[in-house]
């Protein structure tokens, strides 16, 4: 639950401050947030936290969707150059 809270807070914070990015300063804040939310990394982040949020909110058992838990590893690649290098080597 702690990691869910941290990832959710980070996701919402990045979505809130994306209007300060130079390419997104030229559009309205709502359009900038929509455009940033549709970027690949933000979609991966949302897919990584969404099953846990849905399970907690509706009391559903989502054990049949383990692939979404693996998306958290993709989220970690942004912060670790070693994981990026490992991915390139495997590719």
Any overview of this molecule?
- There is one protein chain.
- By secondary structure, the protein is mostly helical.
- The chain has one domain.
- The protein is 71% helix and 0% strand.
- It has 5 helices and no strands.
How are the SSEs placed, and which strands pair?
Layout: H1 2-17, H2 29-37, H3 40-58, H4 67-77, H5 81-90
Helix pairs in contact: 1-3, 3-4
Brief overview, please?
The longest helix has 19 residues, at 40-58. The protein is mainly alpha-helical and 91 residues long. It has helices at 2-17, 29-37, 40-58, 67-77, 81-90.
Number of helices: 5
% residues in beta strands: under 5%
Radius of gyration: 15 Å
Helix content: over 70%
Shape: flat
N-to-C series of helices and strands = HHHHH
The total of beta strands comes to: 0
Please identify the structural class as seen in this structure: mainly alpha
Distance between the termini: 33 Å
Uncertain parts: none
Largest sheet: none
The number of domains: 1
Mean pLDDT: 77
Q: What features would you highlight for this structure?
A:
91 residues, single chain, mainly alpha, flat
């Amino acid at each position: 639950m702690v990691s869910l809270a941290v990832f959710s807070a980070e996701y919402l914070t990045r979505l809130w401050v994306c209007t300060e990015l130079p390419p997104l300063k030229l559009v309205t804040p709502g359009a900038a947030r929509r455009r940033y939310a549709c970027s690949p990394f933000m979609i991966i982040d949302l897919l990584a936290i969404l099953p846990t949020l849905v399970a907690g909110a509706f009391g559903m058992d989502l054990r049949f969707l383990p692939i979404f838990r693996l998306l958290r590893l993709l989220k970690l690649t942004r912060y670790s150059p070693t994981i990026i290098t490992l991915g390139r080597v495997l590719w």
